Amino acid sequence: MKNTFYNDFDFETREKRGADYRSPFQIDRDRIIHSFSFRRLQAKTQVFFSGEYDFYRTRLTHSMEVAQIGRSICSFLLSSSPLLKDDYFIDQDLVEAACLSHDLGHPPFGHAGEEILNKMMHPWGGFEGNAQTLRILTRTIYSSKGIRKGMNPSRAFIDSILKYKFLYDPEKNLKNHFLYQDQKEILDFAFNNRPFPQEFDFKRVNSFRSIECQIMDWSDDTSYSLNDMVDSIKTGFITIEKVENWEKDNKFTDKEHAIIHNVLEIIRSGSVESLFARKIGEFIKACRLIENETFMSDLTNRHRYTLQIDPDIRTECELYKRLSRELVFDSPQISQLEFKGHFMLKQLFSTLLNNYISPADNHLLLLPMDMEDTIQSENLVDSEKVRILCDYIAGMTDRYAVRFYKRLFIPDYGSIVDLV
After folding, report:
1. Cβ contact 99:240 at 8 Å
2. With contact defined as beta carbons under 8 Å apart, do 102 and 133 qualify?
3. Which helix (H) or strand (E) holds 289?
4. What is the pLDDT of residues 197-230, one digit of tens each?
5. Helix/strand number for the chain, H first, E second
6. CA-CA distance, 224 to 379, in Å (whole number)?
7. How far apart are CA 420 and CA 396, in angstroms?
8. How far apart are CA 325 and CA 3, in angstroms?
9. pTM across the whole model
10. Which ranges constitute the DSSP H helices of 81-128?
């Protein structure tokens, strides 16, 4: 049975695809799963640095959980919303593709890595994890032997990962939440060259999202607000004593006090993982569809609907995120690790920049040979070369970044027979 929610506008790609037994969105999803970029997420930081424990989540397991939640939200909405029906529904494969790919662009060492790369790239167009995801999908996911190529994603898939749409402006000193300037053509393709309404400010431009992007974003919030709590409790960062002291030191509403007391009961029960897993179902069932007209809804149903979240569940989600941020992310232990990651990436970026960008005429061979061939192309200007260096660092896993740093800066580490 044909799904009339989507049309040829949604399926269109920038380059024509060949015939395939799969739907366009299944092709998008499959190409993500079978990519190096996706597999690298298994060794990238989610909360705790990769390799430090054997049970907590990495970017890969987090992305898989987000994808499962996203598919479940699609199923729930189809079964519960009067706006959808058997031949008119939100495609699970498209949402899964968005969820699986939403963290592809994040660099090693979590948000500390993103922060330092954005700072170092400020003169060269900035760095943003979501913009880097778009760059991977459309420009670099099939990089090999000096050839850099994107996966030719469908328009609907591109739009599903476009959380942010404001182009980088160095004079506004944007910390994050932007696209790179050279991604304007991708943005124009996604929106059929339509400009945003004049009344849209920075915040409204970035919050204008397709229904699949909204589902992906709530799935992400659900996963990391609940599952980060599980990991933090199991590693001892969140304890009964710490939560009780945190509650005493801050002002909360009666509703927030009730949520905190429930967290304490969950910790006391010892059934942390199973009880928080049940909450995932509650967060899924908190979703509702609202129909509304937008400047794109005449072209696609993807911009005809808003995902509404039950306010009580939204409050619970935000409180979990705050608790994790203040008791875990802002802890001395995590801050020290972030400082170390921050320091290593800064040193790596500065070294590669000085080695490869003019006036460095006699540079050393510090990159893998296929990247050497790419960056030495006579057709590239310095800004393009710097972006390639940034791609290389952002694509590193935590362990590879540490190993590469040691090879360059630790005298007694490494051997002439080691692989780069």
Report:
1. no
2. yes
3. strand 287-291
4. 999 998 999 999 999 999 999 999 999 899 889 9
5. 19, 2
6. 42
7. 12
8. 41
9. 0.94
10. 92-101, 110-120
